[in-house]
Amino acid sequence: MLYWILDKLSALKSKIERKRLEHRWYKLRQRGMHLGLDVWLPASTWIDPDYCFLISIGDHCGFGEECLILAHDAQMDEFLDAARIGQVTIHESCHIGARTVILPGVVIGPKTIVGANSVVTRSLPPNTVCAGNPANVLCSLEDYLSKHRSRIAVATKVACVTSDTTFQERRHIAETVKKEMAYAVGGRTAELKGKGGTPRTPPLFKEHSA
Q1: Is 84:94 a contact under the CB 8 Å cutoff?
Q2: What kind of architecture, by CATH, is found in domain 11-141?
Q3: What are the residue boundaries of the structural domains of the chain, listed by start?
Q4: Cis link prior to 134 (omega < 30° from 0)?
Q5: Residue 209 has pLDDT above 80, yes or no
Q6: pLDDT digits (tens, 9 = 90+) for 111-167
Q7: What totals of helices (H) and strands (E) does the chain contain, helices first?
């Protein structure tokens, strides 16, 4: 009985967290921020609250946990009574690794991957893979994808984890990865069917109460 209650409370908590996340996306758009469709913007992504209207995120982007997106720099404010502000534009199909910091005045070109813990201090070109502090181009996106295509062709593959994955299937994945690295396939397909683990922004929100 106790476990049944805990399961129900956990499901309710998940629903509340999802609604809070959707409300946050709604409020950011309402305050002038461009937030595209099919974007994974987790609750832990810090968005500059005062200047979010200077931030634009294109369609199909994804962010790891605990990223920071800044549109202003007020470090000199005490001394000069002024803060530097700038637009931040993240074009479509960019994927930003966990704990990345994006500074004001930056443009990240379409289809750019930024590695975890990077600090983006200047604009990054499209179709590239970048990382570091400051973030620099490591290779082209095509080179990166080509490398993984070759590896996927010969690597062990398992089904990605979705809302339908059973305990036995999870155990099978764990046992497989104990022996060697593997590729989990089908994640994007599952997301498009609404069975993935990352809720994404719809194109529009219906009006709802605050």
Answers
A1: no
A2: 3 Solenoid (2.160)
A3: 11-141, 155-198
A4: yes
A5: no
A6: 999 999 999 999 999 999 999 999 999 999 999 999 999 999 999 999 999 878 999
A7: 5, 17
Burial of 54 (0-12, 13-18, 19+ CB in 10 A): buried
Confidence (pTM) = 0.88
Q: Name the DSSP class of 43.
A: T
Half-sphere exposure (Cβ direction) of 189: Cα atoms closer than 13 Å: 6
One DSSP character per residue, 69-105 reads: E-SEE-TTHHHHS--EE--EEE-TT-EE-TT-EE-TT
- Amino acid residing at 118: S
Output the pLDDT for position 170. Answer: 95
Lowest model confidence (mean pLDDT) among 35-39, 49-53, 58-62, 187-191: 187-191
Tokens of 75: 């470090």
Give dist(CA 183, CA 177) in Å, integer.
9
Return d(Cα 75, Cα 103) in angstroms, integer: 13
